[in-house]
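pinned: reference chain
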Amino acid sequence: PIAKLSKFPVLTEKLAQEYYDEIKYIATKDELKIYKSLNLEGKRNFLQKFWNDRDPDPNTPMNEAYQEHLRRLKYVREHFSSSLKDGLKTDMGRIYIIYGEPDEIERHLREAGYKPYEIWKYFSKQGGIEFIFADIKGTGEYELLHSTARKERKDYDWRKWIKVR
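pinned: its structure tokens
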């Protein structure tokens, strides 16, 4: 029932955009198109239905999918944000929101001749996938260079980007 998740407040345009930014990586293109076409009350109702439809166990008082999403948002904002950018708008933030916590992270922070990079591994998703991020610009923001996941960036020659010139 829609009433189960009624925590969405009356929306302002700003708040409606923030919620859009928070679901844009996990919603379908059609869902996002519908959301954008709605007025503020319609967007509020959409969000309630969006999360109620994703509730893995409607018989429990909590919506576990929504709680996990909130946990991921908090983590992303705490670990990937900078003074210039919300962590949600970073490559690492996007991947974390979609796929969750990696099963394993290889951190290569101080290898001679290479820029810092990380390899995130997910063993149980899509038969095992990896994401390779690097701090190309030296700003501390890691950009996605290559992934073995479907519909993600592919650059099999990614090592060229991490070599110090």
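why pinned: The radius of gyration is 18 Å. The chain has a mean pLDDT of 93.
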